[in-house]
Amino acid sequence: MQKFDPIPEYVEIAPAARVVTAEHGWKAKCLQRLVRLELPVPKSVALPADTVRAIAAGHPVDSAGILAAFGPEPLVSVRASPAEPEWGGPATILNVGLNANRHRLLTETHGREAADALCVRFIQKYAIHVARLDPDMFEDIEPGKGALGEVLKLYEAETDEPFPQDPARQLSDVLRSVARAWEGTSARLLRAAKGAPADAGLGLVVQEMTQGLGQGVSGSGVIQFVDSVTGTRRVTGRYLGQSQGRDALTAQEAMYLTRDPRGPSLEELAPDLFAELLRHGAACRIGLREEMQIEFTVEDGRLSVLDAVKVQRSARAGLKIAVALAEDGVIDKKDAVLRVEPRALSELLHHQVDPRAPRDVIARGMAASPGAATGKLVFTAEEAQAHAARGEDCILVRRETAPEDIRGMHSAVGVLTERGGMTSHAAVIARGLGLPCVVGASDLRLDAREKKITASDGRVFRAGDVVTIDGSKGQALAGAAVMLPPALDEAFRMLLSWADEFRDIGVRANADTPADAATARKFDAQGIGLCRTEHMFFDEDRLIVMREMIFADSPGDRAAALARLLPMQRADFVQLFEIMHGLPVCIRLFDPPLHEFLPSSREGMRELAEALDRPLSEVTRRVEALREVNPMLGMRGVRLGVVLPEIYDMQAQAIFEATLESARRGAPVVPEVMIPLVSARREVELVKTRIDAVAAMVRTRAKADFDFKLGVMVETPRAALRAGEIAQHAAFLSFGTNDLTQMTYGLSRDDAGRFMNTYVQQGVFPEDPFHILDVDGVGELLLMGAGRGRETRSDLTLSICGEHGGNPESIAFCRRAGFDYVSCSPYRVPMARLAAAHLALNDHVDS
Ligand code: PEP
Ligand code: MG
Question: Is this model's pTM higher than 0.70 or not?
Answer without folding.
Answer: yes
